[in-house]
C-alpha cells in the first residue's frame, strides 16, 4: 500500500487543507475498504473511498499518518508506510528583495518576493507613491521587473483556501535623472473656464521629435487617474482639476514632469449631477443594501465610482473613501453591500471621458446602537408635539460631535450652532419640522438613527446647552 498527500508540502498552517490518498496497487479501488491512522491510532474509520480531504487543518493534526486497506473478498489487509504532516501556528512573513533600489530613467529592476518554506506559493504585488493610492499589480510571479519608481510590497498566497502570509516590508524604488535628461513642460491658455467651456493643454519636450505623451488628472478629493485614450501633445479638457503630463519615447522611457497646471471650473449645472438612491433606507438584520446611481444623460460610456461618506471634523461636509472593487469604476450603475449593520452615508460618482461628478450624500439608517457613537432621545418616543422640548444626547469615545438631521428635503443639515463642537447635548423646543436625527463623531463614526414626527408645525429654534 502507498499513502500520499496533496499538496506535498513540508509544512502546513491552520486553515489550509490536505488530501490523503491510499493506493493498494492491487485490484480495483472498490475492492477495498480504507482506514487512516495517526500516530498509531485510528483517525479515519473504515471507508470505501481511497481519498480523504482534511479541511481545515488544525495544530493538533501534526503527526505520522499511515493507511491500511482490507480487501473485502479475501480478508486481505495491506498497510502503507508513514507520511509526516507538520502543522505550525507561526504565520510566515513575505520577504521582498531588490537589486539596486535606484535606477536610471529607462532602466528597470527585478523585485523578488519569497515565503519560507517556499513550496506552493503565488504572489500578489502592490505599488503606491506619496501622491497616489496603492494599486494591485496583475503579476502573480515570484519575480517581477519594474520600470516605475514607487513604494512596493507583496504577500504570499497558496492552496485552495487562499491562505496568506504576512505582508512584506515596503521597498522604495527611486528613478534618477541625468543632468542631460529633458523635462516635460505643461502649458495652458486660461486656467478658469465656465460651465460648458473648455481649455487646451499643451505638453512639450525639447527636442520635440518622436515623443508621445501621457496625461493624468486629480482633484483635492479624488485620486489621480491616467487618461487611457490620450497620447497627443495637445488635449482639450472641460473638467476642473490638477493636470500633469510626461513625455515617452524609445521603449517607454519616462521623463519627469516639470510643470503642474490647475484648472478651476465654475459650478456644473444640476442636470449633470448624478442622483444616488439606496434600498432599503432602513436596515434590517441580514439585509443587503443596493446603491443605484442615475444620470440624466444615460450612456454606455459612463463609469461609476462608489464611496463611503466619512464625517470629517476639518470641514462642514464629509471626506470620501472608495468602496472595495471601485478603484477603476464599474460599468453597472448599481453596487451591492453585504453585512452592513450601522448607519452609513454613501456617494456615487459618474465619470465619462474628462467629466466626473459626485452625487449628494444618501444615507442608510440603522436603529441599532453603535458602541463608539450613539444617540439617546428624551423623552424617548416617535411622535412629539411642536411645543415639546426634546433633548438629544450624543455618546461615545470622541471629543468632537455634531447632531445631524434629514428633513423632508432629503439633505442633511447640522443642528450644532458651530457645526462641530465638544458639547454633546442639544435641546429642541417649538419645533418647525421633524425628520431623521443622528450623531456624527470626530472619529468618523455614525450613531443609530431616530425618526421623529410632529403633530403640528410652529416656528422653532435650536438651543445648545
TrEMBL record:
Record-linked InterPro entries: Ig-like_dom (IPR007110), Ig-like_dom_sf (IPR036179), Ig-like_fold (IPR013783), Ig_Fc_receptor (IPR050488), Ig_sub (IPR003599)
Annotated keywords: Disulfide bond, Signal
Pfam families the UniProt entry points to: Ig_3
Record's GO cellular component terms: external side of plasma membrane
Gene Ontology MF annotations: transmembrane signaling receptor activity
GO process annotations (BP): cell surface receptor signaling pathway; immune response
Location of the Ig-like domain: 1-77, 92-168, 182-245, 274-364
Protein name, UniProt field: Ig-like domain-containing protein
